[in-house]
């Protein structure tokens, strides 16, 4: 069972990497309003902007030798990769105040028995930061996103 879930997550990572690649060719426009105004979802460019960030993230994750193995199997299966990508988009959409509903498993269950350690989580967060930079997400909004995802660390990283 562990191998099949690892495969799913790896495939999803591959899809995310492909999304990251597309982000570099289609930048998210800078917000016209101050970062404190409006929903984060709108400042990110709504669902289209979030999709570009996820694409950029997945591209980086699949190129990252430290965490790529967690996503390799998923990346090699188009259907699994698409499900993963969709769930990641919906997760970020919902967390940013958008109309999406994340329908995936809770973080604790989704990452159970994956042996994700602190350094893996840091590598993912670094890849996310680079993807946000690639997509020209404002620094203030990056801090909000990274802070929010950092709160999930306890549900993802296994303590040894």
Give a verbal description of the structure.
This protein has 9 helices and no strands. By secondary structure, it is mainly alpha-helical. The longest helix is centred in the first third of the chain and has 24 residues.
| pLDDT < 50 stretches | 1-34
Largest sheet: none
The N- and C-terminal alpha carbons lie at a distance of 21 Å
Helix and strand sequence: HHHHHHHHH
User: SS-based structural class?
Assistant: mainly alpha
Extended strand count: 0
**Number of helical segments?**
9
Radius of gyration: 15 Å
Shape: globular
Q: Which characteristics define this entry?
A:
0% strand, mainly alpha, 160 residues
Summarize the structure.
The protein has 160 residues and is an all-alpha fold.
């Amino acid at each position: 069972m562990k191998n099949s879930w690892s495969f799913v997550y790896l495939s999803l990572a591959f899809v995310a990497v492909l999304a990251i690649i597309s982000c570099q060719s289609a930048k998210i426009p800078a917000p016209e309003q101050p970062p404190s105004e409006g929903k984060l979802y709108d400042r990110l460019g709504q669902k289209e902007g979030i999709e570009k960030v996820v694409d950029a993230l997945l591209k980086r994750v699949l190129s990252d030798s430290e965490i790529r193995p967690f996503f390799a199997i998923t990346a090699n299966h188009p259907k699994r990769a698409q499900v993963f990508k969709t769930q990641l988009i919906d997760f970020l959409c919902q967390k940013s105040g958008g109309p999406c509903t994340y329908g995936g498993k809770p973080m604790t269950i989704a990452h159970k028995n994956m042996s994700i350690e602190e350094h893996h989580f840091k590598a993912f967060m670094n890849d996310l930061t680079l993807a946000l930079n690639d997509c020209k997400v404002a620094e203030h909004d990056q801090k909000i996103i990274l802070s929010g995802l950092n709160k999930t660390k306890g549900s993802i990283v296994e303590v040894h």
